[in-house]
Amino acid sequence: METVNFVEKFIVYIEDHLRDKIDYDKVLNNLGVEQKSFMTIFTSLVGMTPYEYQQKRKMTELAYELYTGHRRIIDIAKYYGFSSIETFKDAYLDEFGISPYETEKYFRSLDLLERISFEVVPVDKPRYPARRQYLESTRIVGVAERFSISEYSAERKYRLLDDLNRNGIIDEMLRFNNGSIKGILLHERYVANEMEVLIGVTSTLAAPFEETYTESSDFVIFESQGPAPDTVERIYNYIFRRWRFKEDSELNCNFSMEVLKSTFDIGSPDTKVQVWQALYID
């Protein structure tokens, strides 16, 4: 797919269906798009998943309607598909931290999302150290969770990582890390109509964990340091908005891999982060 144009067209689709329950899996299947690839590209360009974008935009339009005051709250709630006024009030409080009745008073301080636009700029100089490496298919052992496309967000991946770290499972995994990639590996792919996230280590040893295998691929490895969620997001943003427009290689987004080294506290500024961006092999 031609990345930017397709994402722009999909944003138009979402804007036209803000009030609908979009079956993203079905829509992407009908368009002939690989779900994991699209989710990676959309999130890197827009800064959130398609589902998160739809919900944020819907709540923003709701806030504008409440602020202008042309319709009753109950009519607005019904129009946007809420089953009851109480359900609507709870969703509004979760999103903005105020009740619908306080909208006029606090409107200027609300975290609203206008229809997204983004700037794509060819890279002039490297922002992150990067190197190329070919990697044969490699075994990963670890803990996996699976989500529907509509449920998935990067937050879930880091929540799983944090839970594993606090429960001592990360330390246990590292005892088996005798493979070619050193550190905790976050591997995502789309399988059996779900997004699979496996957090683990590369290993050839028998281990009491689930296992999967990476694809054989050429990779560009980008490195940085800082809190994992923000640092990984910035690297992908750089790859898709800048770096890729200077490169001839085609990015393979059917799976993704990030590696954390030195500390596994996701909020630590000392965490060393790598993004292993796969390339299609000519």
TrEMBL record:
Transmembrane annotation, as ranges: none
Pfam families xrefs: HTH_18
PROSITE patterns the UniProt entry points to: HTH_ARAC_FAMILY_2 (PS01124)
Alphabetized UniProt keyword annotations: DNA-binding, Transcription, Transcription regulation
Statement: the UniProt record of this protein carries the keyword Repeat: no
Span of domain HTH araC/xylS-type: 8-106
Keyword set includes Hydrolase: no
One function term, GO molecular function aspect: sequence-specific DNA binding
Protein name: AraC-type DNA-binding protein
Species name: Salinicoccus halodurans
